[in-house]
Amino acid sequence: MAQLGRPGLSSAEKAELWRRWKAGQSLSDIGRALGKHAGSVHTVLSAHGGIIPATRSRSPRVLSLMEREEISRGLAAGQSHRQIAIKLKRSPSTISREIARNQSINHYRAVEADANAWDRAQRPKSCRLQTHPELQAVVASKLHFDWSPEQISGWLKQTYPVDQQMHLSHETIYKSLFIQARGVLKKELMKHLRSRRMMRRGKSSSTEGQPRGQIVDAISIRLRPAEIEDRAIPGHWEGDLISGSKNSHIATLVERQSRFVMLVQVDGKDTVNAVNALIRQVKQLPQGVMASLTWDRGTELAQHKRFSVATDVAMYFCDPKSPWQRGTNENTNRLLRQYFPKGTDLSGYTQPYLDEIALKLNTRPRKTLGFITPRDKFNQCVATTG
């Protein structure tokens, strides 16, 4: 069997390749470690969609090489199929099928029979999506609406609690997308995933912070009340700007308890434009729905006092170089990059279009909410505060 890659990777090298890929290393780093070209690494990975192939193993129920050698010796000694079966404690029909499948010109070769059996065993197995057209159609339709595989899996379990045939793991969906040899889900559906990656891989554990300017009279996140920290009560938000080309920006606001998202069109990153846009958006909310807003150290909120006076919203600021302190907002911004890739000119998007994108996020079930939607959770919050 030909090896994947050039000039070819041994089994040990492939195992090391997959270990490094799972650890989050780049193609170049893996190539340098193995002394191979990055193209060779990519060839191996892309053939499996970046998903580590399952380690092959023999079932204890199948005939072993030792048993096949015993069959060969028994035939050479003139023993019957039944006599060989008794000696091996196997069914006579098992021995008969084995001999009929591998005997040629009255000769049975144990090594050849064992190799043939190993080759036959690696034929592709049909996954549930392949054998269940209704399930396949449901999964494809949800992907079209930009649902993630994990959201689809959770929704299926809630929608079809009794019908196990309509249950599916999110990893099976990913495999059907990234391993196109399965021929189950169309490759075009991959564009609906949050990430535009062509291969599946683990997440990197590190995130680089960005330097931020000084905010006068900023109240530190460390002084934020405990009930905000543990999401015990609704009405506490996190915000940030996502940036595009030509100095274009969009403000993102997310409610910590419900994960409800609002996108705000801003005319510039300067504090006057940013604060004006936020005041305009927040004033559209029902009274009391936003009690506090946590921002990073970006100077677009230098006029935070004017914002607080106009909206009656308390402002808190993260520590320098600590975007992880607004984890809910950072995660939301990553989701939004599906719709606003880095390098995109964001100035051309109207507020109605931004509202449409926010609606997509707010009407998708979230695992962290027990697979209910942020909109439903947010409505509960509004009813509570009202």
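[next item in queue]
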Amino acid sequence: MRPQALLLLGLALIQPLIESGVALAEEGTTEAIPGSADEGPTSTEEKQMAEPPPPWSATAEIYGFFPLRTTGSTTVKGLTADLDLDLEQVLRPLTMAAYVRGSVEYKRLGLLTDLSYVSLRGEEATTSPSGVRKVSATLNNIQGIYDLALRYRFGDREQAIAKGGSFNVIPYAGVRFVDMRYELSAQFDGPNRSLSGSRSFGGTVTQPLLGTQASVFLSPRLRLFARGDVGGFGVNNSDDYSANAQVGVGYAVGNNTQLNLSWRYLHLGGTNDQSPENAYSIDHNGVEMGVKFFF
């Protein structure tokens, strides 16, 4: 066979392969080049980070306050009794306790609330050596603190997880209702007669409230936080005021849940500003533990 004929036969055999390669190359040019403007988000997380946060947010915290030491004094009808109690002495007469705080925010402006209720009941009885005289006394104490305030946030939104260095400072102003009630009942039983009586004092007072809370993340899941506030400002009288101071750490155990541990100081003081005087001045120092949820 001549060389020209062999060349024509070879071209005829490889022509279909050449045409197929050209078609594949043309199809490949339609795919997006990595890093080009036509390429979409590479992951769901990146999509979420690119989306603006919703304007509404909220928090809710269930917590418990355990005063390791309680000191102060209580005055009834001009007679004053001093207090110095450890945690066991405080918990023994405890009949009920409930603590919850929360907030709701639109953009940077929001509302917060902190509600606590404690009920105590203590009983004491003494009997004379002869056993013919007996005196028993019962003291009921209710301590309720109910805060409602307007707040404004500087810095980043409250959340369980954030990058290290993320922080916020949130001043607030509002009203605090302090419900402090004492009820004392006594019973005397003797050989010839029995006597009983009861006294009560206290009630609910309204106090203006000013405070600030702040937090900073040390790592994506670990943060430091602090809070301080004062209520009263002599609106009712100079002895009617309350104060909080708190500092602690929080650690995220999920995407929207955080465990908090802190030291807290709480002062409550009040008087009827009359003679004879009914008054109280109580200082609590202890540990607070809570679970906080972010929405």
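[queue empty]
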